[in-house]
């Protein structure tokens, strides 16, 4: 069976995959969720975080051939990791995630979207190093179809997000392009507009684009369904 490396998005950590890991295990798969630098229990100071530091954390966790899943912001570090060294990356899976365009940072990508619904839910720190989720808008933007318990759990664990890795431009080369890719599009997403997800996935083979009728957080709202999609991706 397959092994999955699960990479979280902005302000989140390994904790957000808590319901997906057992769902994958029930199907016979194994999974590892990691904390990127300055997230979860990782002690890195936000001012020391870089996009390449994120990629290095992914490489450290790649101890076997893996399907590497990146949620939201996680699309950038998984792409950069593949571009630096695709060893042990069987396939990249973008879960309502940003797919880098040449010479674009994640901030640039967000601004290319036709709408900016996420902006109501984030606040930049005075020092300009991080931004954080505004709790009163978190459910509306990230978790509108998630159980109350999961929303409370998320609000207890969200952390500040370093801005520098999201402001770093990338142009990806042949090593990145050598890795197969899949996109899981979330059609009720209130953080990254679904129409922009469609645009980012436009050059993926049609059979490698999956649509879920969920919010930005299917790991909480539909973990078993997400696990079934990952199972199908691995089987294919």
TrEMBL record:
Coiled coil: none annotated. Pfam families: Abhydrolase_6 (PF12697). Residues 4-228 form the AB hydrolase-1 domain. InterPro entries: AB_hydrolase_1, AB_hydrolase_fold, MES/HNL. It comes from the Bacteria. GO terms for molecular function: methyl indole-3-acetate esterase activity; methyl jasmonate esterase activity. This is Pimeloyl-ACP methyl ester carboxylesterase. It comes from Roseivivax halotolerans.
């Amino acid at each position: 069976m397959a092994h999955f490396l699960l990479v979280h998005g902005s302000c989140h950590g390994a904790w957000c995959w808590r319901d997906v890991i057992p769902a994958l295990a029930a199907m016979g798969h194994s999974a590892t969720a990691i904390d990127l630098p300055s997230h979860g229990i990782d002690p890195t100071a936000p001012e020391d975080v870089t996009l390449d530091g994120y990629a290095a954390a992914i490489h450290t966790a790649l101890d076997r051939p893996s399907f590497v899943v990146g949620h939201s912001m996680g699309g950038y570090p998984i792409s950069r990791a593949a571009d630096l060294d695709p060893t042990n990356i069987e396939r990249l899976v973008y879960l309502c995630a940003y797919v880098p365009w040449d010479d674009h940072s994640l901030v640039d990508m967000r601004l290319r979207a036709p709408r900016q619904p996420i902006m109501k839910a984030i606040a930049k720190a005075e020092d300009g190093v991080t931004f954080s989720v505004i709790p009163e808008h978190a459910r509306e933007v990230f978790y509108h179809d998630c159980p109350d318990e999961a929303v409370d759990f998320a609000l207890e664990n969200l952390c500040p997000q370093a801005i520098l890795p999201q402001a770093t431009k990338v142009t990806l080369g042949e090593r990145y392009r050598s890795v197969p890719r899949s996109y899981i599009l979330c059609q009720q997403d209130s953080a990254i507009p679904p129409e922009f997800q469609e645009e980012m996935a436009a050059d993926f083979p049609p059979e490698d684009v999956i649509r879920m009728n969920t919010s930005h957080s299917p790991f909480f709202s539909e973990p078993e369904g997400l696990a079934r999609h990952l199972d199908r991706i691995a089987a294919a």
